[in-house]
Fold this protein.
Amino acid sequence: MQLKKENFDSRERSQYKALSVNQPYAQHIADGEKTLEIRSRNTTLRGDVVICSTAKPHVCDYLCGAILCKVEIYDVVKFKDLSDIEKAQSKIPQNQWKQYKDYYAWKLRNVRKVIEKPVIGGQGLWTLYCTDDYVDEYPEELGERVLTPAERVREYAETVKSIKHRSRVGLITIGIGALSSIAAIFGIVKLIIWLVSKIA
């Protein structure tokens, strides 16, 4: 469980540097899709941090107010010094890049998803005090982990999209088949009429 600082005992408990990120960006980091976190301030911190989704603003279909993953901050550069390809990895729309030109890009790697649990976050980099078992990575021996609600929603959406696509393809195929059958029947009828006229 998460602990208050005054209830923390380093001999029995754990503490982590944590970073609160709004949804859906926090989930993009956990999924490995967002490798840059853009901040107005620099940081000298290098190493692991726990990524937490903020409780507000609430974003439908995404877990808010929860720990999502651990990542490594391995470098920091000015946003304006990034290539366009790198800037795109921040998930910030291109038409907004100019307003972040003086911001810093915290480079992230080595994403490890953790078992999602509720958390009360803080501003900027903050310290998460908790019991030793609170920030647990998904154990490999469990095999394929259970999808989070957000991932299940996205998987469902992809499934629906795929079904719709297959349905459209199926309708087109049926339509082509029907036209071919009509053309064949029409050809047979013409052939029969021609044969009857020859016999007559």
Remarks:
- Residues 147-200 form one domain.
- Strands lie at 13-21, 36-39, 47-53, 66-78, 104-118, 125-131.
